[in-house]
Structure formats: structure tokens, C-alpha cells
Amino acid sequence: MIGDFIFDLAMRNIRINFLRSLLAAIGIVIGVIAITAVGIMGANMTLSVTETLSANSDTIKVSPYSGGGGGMMGPPQGGSSSSDDEYITSTQLRTIRQIATPNTVIPVYSESDTIYIGGDEGRASIYGLAKSDISSFLSVTSGVIDLQSTNGALVGATLAERYGLKIGSRIKIGDEDGDSGTKTVKVSGILEERGMTFDINTDNAIIVTDRWFTTVYGGEGEYDEVIIKVKDINDIEALKTAIDDQLNRKDDEVTISDASRMLDSITSSLQTIISMMQGIGAISLLVASVSIFNVMMMSVTERIREIGILRSIGTRRKVVLKMFLYEASIIGVVGAIIGGVMSFILGYIVVLSMVGTTAYFFTIDSLIYVPYGMFIGVIICVISGLYPAWRASTIDPIKALTAE
Amino acid sequence: MPIIQIHNVTKIYPLPVGDVVALNGISLDIEEGEFVAIMGQSGSGKSTLLNQIGSLDIPTGGDLFIAGRNIREMNDDELTDMRLNTIGYIFQRFNLIPLLNLYENVEYPLVLKYGKRDTTGRPTELLRMVGLDGSIIEHKPAEVSGGQQQRAAIARALVNDPKILLCDEPTGNLDSKTGEQIMDILTDLNRQGRTVILVTHDPQTAEYAHRTIVLRDGRLAE
């Protein structure tokens, strides 16, 4: 085949100008790595978040309406609240319980406060829950889940690790310089790490009994949110609608949400961030394409007499065009293969260090970015080689033969 | 019927400083099997005329028939095919493809014509005919002498069995002894029936031809 012969010519020219071609290919390697590794990382992040939040797909959260709540069931976005309440009342909780039965309903008190552990000072979320509710959706890695004494507390895994908390450790909660001073709780158990969750984020939190909470912060019967753990996730929409019909009948009282909206919102934000990072990575491919263009133009200029010879002895324009496109394609394919292999390795390292798990690395959604990045790398090379190849094919053979 | 018919051919190069008339109303017939030398001083238009006959360039005016076809009515692919199949070009500077060895240079037009590597042994046969044999044919052009390059160039010009051989100062870059050997090969090829058109400004070289045409300022001076 003439194509094989021309391909061989292109290969020989690349070998003669090996260093120059290699440098051009390195540009493609970097570009492919940039877009592929970022793509892999993004896919792994998205998959990780999706799985974590999917574990919360049985959860409905009812919060006091505060005028926002875009994308969630309840009052329209931007409207002002018709209710002055910033909490869920006991009456509302009762209504929710009536609607949600037989599902589990967990009223939650919450606060953010200063904490003192030994000589260290920090901040943590404080959640007040009924003793019976705690064990219904939380578990401990050490200690006991049941808070026997009033001042017993469970601490999140991250908080425990950060401050070296053990069973029996004491934590002072509240502002030492404030009027109400501090209250002390004793660690009864250390909670299992939960990661990103839809209900309450316990990893950096202290769980106390509702009694302790209302004694310290007041507001008994004024809940910050109500969590409903649904037995059958197919009931979620019906439950949400029923609560909305009851509690938001006259005025906008509560916002009702479930994990799916949050999941959509987070994955959408992640996709935007990843696309932006890929866009930045694509700039390196653009730089590489300029390099390929430059190499190809130099090749055309240096080989102008050779082009003249080829044309004068009967080589058609399209064959000359093909020869230079082969050259650009070879650089692209070599760069894309090296880039693809390196993206695979670097992607694995990046995912391990940034996402923390490679559980999703060997999935199609993640590894699809390797052929995708390689394909873009090759296409960029071919596009960069189009003009130089066209120019080579349209050179006047007489002028080319007389060129020095 | 003449294999080459040139009727009132002009070639004008438009330049910013004014048009340059390279060929001015040339009319000429060359019969099949003739050996014609074209002579003239530098700038007389002899290479321009050879380029028109070689279908590397198209006349501005007049008609030029090669093997019965008017090249002014042919598109680029048809002109290219004419150079591949009907015309063999031998250049002063040999013009071998530097990336290919001598054998591959000779084989290349065959690959262009048939779309596959040669299996008939014709390139080897032609290289042997012009005096190139053995491992020398595996060398790149830059690794052999000018005479050996010109011999390979002749073999390449012959490989597709063209009716017309165009030679642009074929001995211009060679010593006199090698030049004579090359001219002997061309004479033999003409004896075998090929039409040979030779551009030269060396009267001794022109003596090998049956007929000599002299150009002066783009016109026939004969």
C-alpha cells in the first residue's frame, strides 16, 4: 500500500528529528495527563459522594423555614418567612409524628459552641438527642452508645482523634469568659466515622442528651430540625407532600428536603469544579498544539525540496498531505499512549491522596477518562498538523525543487 | 503524430515590477523516438520549456500536447499522473529522496503506480542496467557519489516505462568521465525507442542528440 510507504517515510523523518518530535510529544503527554487525571479524580469524588449520600437516601429532614431553601420542597425561593419561629415546635413535631408513623422520627437540638479539652480550645457542633433516638441511627467504635449519666456525651471520630479524647475524657462546653460559664461532659463513647451525611454531621460533634442540652441552652420543645428515617424509600415523596400539606398549609413554616436534591446539588457543583480544572488542563493541550504546529511547519520548511521531488515524480497532493498528517498523528499517538499510561498511574496516586479511597478507581465512569484524554490528545495533534500538511501539499513543485 | 506538440506556447510570470515573458510564442513538434537537445544561455527559457513539457507547469497561452493530451486542459491529479506514467524526469541535482535508499528511490514510483511494494525485481534490474549492483543500492543518496546518484535517478525515471525522458543538465554536476557514461546510458535508452529531451548549455553534450533547438529570450533561435 502507498499508505504504508508514506507512513514509513513519516516514521523515518520523526526518527531523524527525534528530539524535536519527542519534545512536541511531551507537550501532548502533559496535556493528556492534565485532563485525564483531573477527570479521573472528579469521577472518583463524584462516585464517592454519591455512594455516601445514597446511604442517606432513606432520610427526610424537616427544618424551620428561613426564607431560602432553593430546590427543596416548601416555600418559593427568596420569599420572606411568614413565620417568626426559627425552630420546629412540639405541635409541629406531633403532626410530623402522626404523618410519619410507623417511620422513625428524630427531633434534634443543635448548637455550635466553644469547647475546652485540657489546655486546648476549639469549636464543635453540639447535638441534643433523646436517649432512645441515639442508638437508632448512630453507633460507637468504643465505649457505650447509651448515655447513662446526664452529663455523658458521645464524640465524633474526627473530634476524638484531633484532641486525643478517650472514654472518660472530660470536655468543657461554653464560653469561659461568658455569663453562663462552662458545663462539663464526660465522654461515654466515640462514634463511628460517618463522613458526609445528610442528617447530622457527627464527626466533629458532641452528642448529648436532650435533657442536658435544654438545661444548658434552654428552648425545650424548640427543635432545630427533625429527621425522619423512612422504612421504604418509595414513601419519601408521599411523606414530603403530606408534611408540606399539613405544616405549610397556611404559611410557610418548614422546609422539607431529602438527600436526592442535596446529591444533585453537590454532584453538579463537583462537575462544575472538575470541568473548570479540566479547562485549565486543556490550556496545556493548547500549548502542546502550538508546539506540534511549530514542529510541523519546520518539517515542511526543511523538507520543501523533498516535497518538490515527490510531486515532480508523480506524487499526488493528497499523498503529500497524508504523509504530514501521519507525522502529526504519530507524535499524537505516541504522546497520547504515554500520557494515557501516566494518567492511569498518576490518577491512581491523586485519587488515593485526595479522595482517600480507590474503591471507585477501576470503574468505567472513572477510567473512561483515559481513552477520552488520549483521543483528545490525538485529535489535537491531527488538527495542529492540518494546516502544515495542506501547505506542504499545495507547494508549487518547481518552487519547491529550486528551494535551498 | 508527434509525441509532443507545442503550438504558440507562452509563459508569463507576473511580478510586482512587471510581467516576465519566459516563453514567447514557441511552436515545436517532437516525434516519438527523437533525441532532442535544447540549448540556450541562462535565462533563455530552456528550463521553463522543459518544465512545461514535463507537466510541472502550465503554459500561460498556446497549446501543449503530450502523448495526445493538452496539458492546459488537465487538472492537478491528471498532470501528476502524467509525470508518473508518461514522463521520466532526470535532474541536474539528481533529486533523490534523502530518506530512502537507492533501491527504495527507484521502487517508489512503482509503489505510487500500483499501490504496493514491488515483487517483480524491476528496480534491481534497472539499477543493474545503469551499473549499480550489490550492497550499494541499500545506501542512502548522501552516502554515495554524484555519478551513482545520477545512475539511480535514471533508473527511477525508467521504472514506470515512460515514453518521454526529460533530462535537465543531467551531467552538470558530474565530472567529464562520469558525464560521458551517463550520456552513453541516455543514448542507449533512445536507441531502445524512448524519446529523450535534453536541456544543456554544453555543446559537446548536445552532440549526442539528433536535433538541437536553441532558445534565445524565450523564442526559438533555430
Molecular structure report:
The complex is a heterodimer of chains A (404) and B (222). Chain A is of the alpha+beta class. Chain A folds into two domains: 191 residues, no CATH class; 199 residues, no CATH class. In chain A, 55% of the residues lie in helices and 16% in strands. Chain A is built from 13 helices and ten strands. Chain A has a six-stranded mixed β-barrel with strand order 2-3-8-5-7-6, surrounded by four helices. In chain A, strand 2 and strand 3 form a beta hairpin. Chain B is an alpha/beta fold. Chain B has a domain of 67 residues. Helices cover 32% and strands 26% of the residues of chain B. Chain B has a six-stranded mixed sheet, with helices on both faces. In chain B, strands 2-1-4-5 form a four-stranded antiparallel sheet, covered by helices on one side. In chain B, helix 4 packs across helix 5. The radius of gyration of chain B is 17 Å and the shape is globular. The two termini of chain B are 22 Å apart. Chains A and B meet through helix 1, helix 9 and helix 13 of A and helix 2 and helix 3 of B.
Per-chain topology:
The complex is a heterodimer of chains A (404) and B (222).
Chain A (H helix, E strand, L loop, with lengths): L1 H15 L1 H37 L4 E6 L25 H11 L3 E14 L2 E10 L1 H7 L2 E4 L8 E4 L1 H7 L6 E4 L9 E9 L13 E5 H8 L7 E5 L6 H12 L6 E5 H44 L1 H9 L4 H38 L9 H4 L1 H25 L3 H6 L2
Parallel strand pairs in A: 3-8, 5-7
Antiparallel strand pairs in A: 1-9, 1-10, 2-3, 2-6, 2-9, 4-7, 5-8, 6-7
Helix pairs in contact in A: 1-2, 1-10, 2-8, 2-10, 2-12, 3-7, 8-12, 10-12
Chain B lengths: L3 E10 L6 E11 L4 E6 L5 H8 L7 E6 L2 E2 L5 H10 L1 E4 L11 H13 L7 H8 L16 H13 L5 E5 L7 H16 L3 E5 L3 H4 L4 E6 L2 E2 L2
Parallel strand pairs in B: 3-8, 3-9, 6-7, 7-8
Antiparallel strand pairs in B: 1-2, 1-4, 4-5, 9-10
Helix pairs in contact in B: 3-4, 3-5, 4-5, 5-6
What is the compact description of this entry?
The complex is a heterodimer of chains A (404) and B (222). Chain A is α+β, with helices and mostly antiparallel strands and 404 residues long. Chain A has helices at residues 2-16, 18-54, 90-100, 131-137, 157-163, 210-217, 236-247, 259-302, 304-312, 317-354, 364-367, 369-393, 397-402, and strands spanning 59-64, 104-117, 120-129, 140-143, 152-155, 170-173, 183-191, 205-209, 225-229, 254-258.
